[in-house]
Amino acid sequence: MSSDIPYSRKHPFPAPLLVNRNLCGPGSEKETRHVEFSLAGSGLQYEAGDSLGVHATNDPTLVDEIIGLLRCSPDAEVLNVDKQLEPLRAALLRHCVITHPDRKFLAALVEKGGANGELAALLVPERKAGLDEYLWGREVVDFLAAAPGLHFEPAEFVATLRKLQPRLYSLASSQRVHPDEAHLAIAAVRYESHGRVRRGVCSTFLGERLPVGEAAPVFVHSAKGFRLPDDPARDIIMVGPGTGVAPFRAFLEDRRATGATGRNWLFFGEQHAAANFFYREEFERAMADGFLTRLDTAFSRDQAHKIYVQHRLLERGAEVWRWIDAGAEFFVCGDAKRMAKDVDHALIEIVVAQGGRTPETAAEYVETMRREKRYKRDVY
Questions:
Q1: Domain closes at, from 122, 137, 159
Q2: Short-list 251, 257, 260, CA closest to 228
Q3: Cα 130 vs. chain centroid, distance in angstroms?
């Protein structure tokens, strides 16, 4: 493609990897990495709150195992999901979802007699919840390995797979501070199920398979609903446990660079203070010089009972209410299934206890905050 074409999701920029370091200390039960890409020469622009999209490739070891189970040549020509001819191995590496099985693949499996009766019964629309439960921790390779006599033509197999989509990660940097760079905080996804180690496609692509100096295709994804206040004097409260802290590192860099005078309060949570306090030195320096007004942490495994960010919010409820009542904007980033819901409930409890509302009017108050764009969430 011509270099005149602006870089975008469909025309990503090949960004060289500059830095890849582990944010976790000794004894950590997880791995979270700080990653920096060069955007020099790309013309890509982003604002604090935006995300970086990364086009990953699949694990070549898993690709080769699947090709072996199919008993096909890796060079067999197939029509990929973009309707272009290419070798089977290249299609599986770059274009196809080879982990989570699609219903189309499962239906083909049943039709060929390569699945048990339980799976066939779960493929009706009314049993979606049951199918999701059955598929948890199972990948395409498991079904192929369980049916060694099964035969797929290479093109037929590829036609049953979904298109591999880029992954979006909250930017952990301000372009005002790092004009030619994009920083990310990425939790490596690894777990064991059904006797196999599973790996997140993009998190392990960045963590294990992309050497420093090599490039990954990237683009900027704008998040206009997750922006800093227009008024630099407005106070902000940021709730970002785990990698949810990434955009708030960017917020703090950006607010300092623009000379924003509003107060900044960060709630951060993880498992252990000694091993999982991401960007600790940066935040403590910002506390020491007064730019970060308050920093409250919740390390869930450092005591007998688990403490999370929503508990810290409730403990600081009176002060949180004073900030909100005075017009502070409230930001949440991270897990949508549990954390964001728990924080939402805590916020309503604070409005009840400190603002003298009923549960119903407190919920209305929080909803008004959303409508007025004083309560912003980036959850996933």
A1: 159
A2: 251
A3: 26
Q: What is the pLDDT of residues 328-373, one digit of tens each?
A: 999 999 999 999 999 999 999 999 999 999 999 999 999 999 999 9
Non-local (6+) Cβ contacts of 248 within 8 A are 238, 240, 266, 331, 333
How many domains, the chain? 3
- Contact between 236 and 373 under an 8 Å Cβ cutoff? The reply is no
Q: Residue with structure tokens 């963590």?
A: 207
Same domain (yes/no): 316, 369: yes
As a whole number of angstroms, the distance between CA 54 and CA 221 comes to: 10
**The pLDDT of residue 116:** 80
**Distances 245 to 99, 238, 270, 370, 375 between C-alpha atoms, Å:** 28, 8, 10, 20, 16
How far apart CA 271 and CA 157 sit, in angstroms, is 42
- Residue-level pLDDT at 1: 41
Which residue from 32, 36, 56, 97 is spatially nearest to 268, judged by alpha carbons? 32
Cβ atoms within 10 Å, residue 308: 18
Nearest-angstrom CA–CA distance, 67 and 308: 44
Alpha-carbon distance 204 to 26, whole Å? 20
Residue 171 to residue 173: CA distance in whole angstroms: 6
Q: Using CA of residue 296, residue 301, residue 306, residue 309, what is the dihedral sign?
A: positive
Find out whether 220 and 43 touch, Cβ atoms under 8 Å.
Answer: no
What's this model's pTM, rounded to 2 decimal places?
A: 0.95
Q: Which residue segment(s) compose the domain that 364 sits in?
A: 236-379
270 with 276: CB under 8 angstroms?
yes
Does one domain contain both 148 and 91?
A: yes
Strands (E), 179-224: 181-187, 190-193, 196-199, 215-221
CA distance 336 to 379: 5
Asked whether residue 6 is assigned to any structural domain, the reply reads no
| Contact in structure between 50 and 221 (CB atoms under 8 Å) | yes
- Please report, as a single letter, which amino acid is at residue 285: R
Question: Using one digit for the tens of pLDDT, what is the confidence trace for 287-322?
Answer: 999 999 999 999 999 999 999 999 999 999 999 999
Do 76 and 153 share a domain, yes or no? yes
| pLDDT at 227 exceeding the cut of 70 | yes
CA-CA-CA-CA torsion sign (351, 355, 356, 360): negative
